[in-house]
Design brief:
Blueprint (H helix, E strand, L loop, with lengths): L1 E3 L5 E3 L6 H14 L3 E4 L7 E3 L4 E4 L5 H15 L8 H15 L5 H28 L5
Length: 138
């Protein structure tokens, strides 16, 4: 469960959940949503393919790999995944992860915040490059 303050700051409320329970939860969600799961070496290599309902995730060994797995499931099951804007898709997948997690701690929230920050930076850089290569006529 999480508490949202008036400032929209998210305050995680960590509940003790074993790694085995997190692992089982991810697999149960994958089965319930007919998602094909394959495995990668680390959470930073995870991805989702919404159209074929598949995710590639690291083995669930911590809250971080659990949060990443939920985020990838969010790309398949969450809202706004058809948006043409990557930042909207990313934010929505993290919202889905938070809403469906058995627990959500500060480390998980930090991961989500860093991922959103990286996505924002990538969008900004792409816009800058597009402007550099396609300047507006004067």
């Amino acid at each position: 469960m999480i508490v949202v303050l008036a400032t929209k700051q998210i305050v995680p409320r960590a509940i003790a959940v074993s790694v085995e329970r997190m692992r089982r939860h991810v697999l149960d969600l994958s089965i319930a949503h007919a998602i094909q799961v394959s495995w990668c070496v680390r959470p930073s290599k995870a991805y989702a393919v919404k159209e074929s309902r598949e995710i590639c995730i690291a083995p669930i060994r911590s809250a971080i790999s659990y949060a990443t797995a939920l985020h990838e499931i969010g790309h398949v099951c969450g809202q706004h995944q058809a948006s043409p804007h990557s930042l909207i898709r990313e934010a929505a997948a993290w919202r889905w992860a938070r809403a469906n997690a058995l627990t959500w701690n500060y480390g998980m929230e930090k991961l989500a915040g860093e991922a959103i920050g990286f996505a924002k930076a990538a969008v900004t850089e792409l816009a800058r490059l597009a402007q550099t290569h396609n300047p507006t006529p004067s």
